[in-house]
Structures are given as structure tokens and as C-alpha cells.
Write a structure and sequence with these properties.
heterodimer, A: 6-stranded mixed β-sheet, 3-stranded antiparallel β-sheet, about 45% strand, globular, B: mainly beta, 11 strands
Amino acid sequence: QSVLTQPPSASGTPGQRVTISCSGSSSNIGSNYVYWYQQLPGTAPKLLIYRNNQRPSGVPDRFSGSKSGTSASLAISGLRSEDEADYYCAAWDDSLSGLVFGTGTKVTVL
Amino acid sequence: EVQLVESGGGLVQPGGSLRLSCAASGFTFSSYSMNWVRQAPGKGLEWVSYISSSSSTIYYADSVKGRFTISRDNAKNSLYLQMNSLRAEDTAVYYCARARMIFGVADADMDVWGKGTTVTVSS
């Protein structure tokens, strides 16, 4: 089961800013980096943010990540229709000795 | 082009076995740790297993520990997942994913993913 909690859905109109939260614990987010993945319908996940707030080359700067304590968040500014996707946070969990994903958030562009 | 291609999925009866493969190309496979991640129909992502570049470090999710075995053959640029005692809840698309950092430690940092192979466990 997922140990990182995300809201099931988020939405906004084109151009708006959307924020997705990810809540964990001291054994995962509290002591390790947070990563964010974007999964477009019918495709494999894509790394969106690494090491809390770093963007891989090719990821627009509209996407930004942050972390504070045992929580993290992903912000999408200037929302676009192509941002409609599922978003997952992830982190290593020292207590489980395993990788944990968030419950996932479906972003809808209205 | 950096690429991962999974194969070996299919329909299997409960209690049966299946071996998944992941063929890597376009990068020095032996330098990177690898993961298997699965996604049940209509559900979220679930990490399955991790193996370091030299196979010296291996981790499993509790849900598959004792039933699944991850391995790799660096000479063949291939990653494997041997799945035994399969259950209905193992039905999912299975992805192999490369760790982003060369010789990196185990974490959630995966920058290259395959398209996945589908495993269906049903009688």
C-alpha cells in the first residue's frame, strides 16, 4: 500500500497554477529526496522532478518542486491542456528498505 | 537512443510462474542500478524490486518478497524478474526503469522507463 498521501484530484483552467501535495513520514520524505513523475494516459511514467526541486533537461520550468519536513509539493504554473495526466510523488523509505510511491493525483485542465 | 524493452508478460494461472525480461540499449547497462515497477489496472504505481549495477544489493517490496527474484546479466544488457507463486493481485503492467545516477544508491530516481509488459493472473 502507498505510504505517501496525495489528493486524488486537482484541476484548473489554462494559465492557472495548480499545486499537488505529498505527505509522508520521517522515514521517507523526512530523510530522503523526493521525486515526481508524470504519467500521461496509456504511457509509462516520466521523471518530472528529481532531488526535491531539480528538473531534468527538457522539462519546462512551469513545473517546480519543494520539500519541507515530511511533506513535499509539486506546482504547475501556466497550466496547459497537455498537462492533463496522473502525477506521483516518490521517495526511498529507510524503515521499509524500499521505494514508496504516492497515491497519485489526477490533474484535469478545465 | 537510450531504450528499455520489456518482454515475457502473458496470461498465467494462479500459482504459476513467469519470467520477465528487460533489454537495455543505448547506454552502459553495467553502470546503472535498475528497478521493476508495476501498475495494476486502474491503480497507481507500485515499486517491486531494485538491483544495483553489480547485483551486490537487492531489495524487494514486502508484497513480492519470497516469491519474486530480480537478476541481471550485464554481458547481455538484460534485467530479469522471475515471478513464482503468482496471485491475482500480481496482475499489472510491469515496467523496468533505470536509475538516473551512474553507480547510484537505491532511491526513487529513475529517468528511463520501458513501455511495460502486461501480466495477467487468472484461471
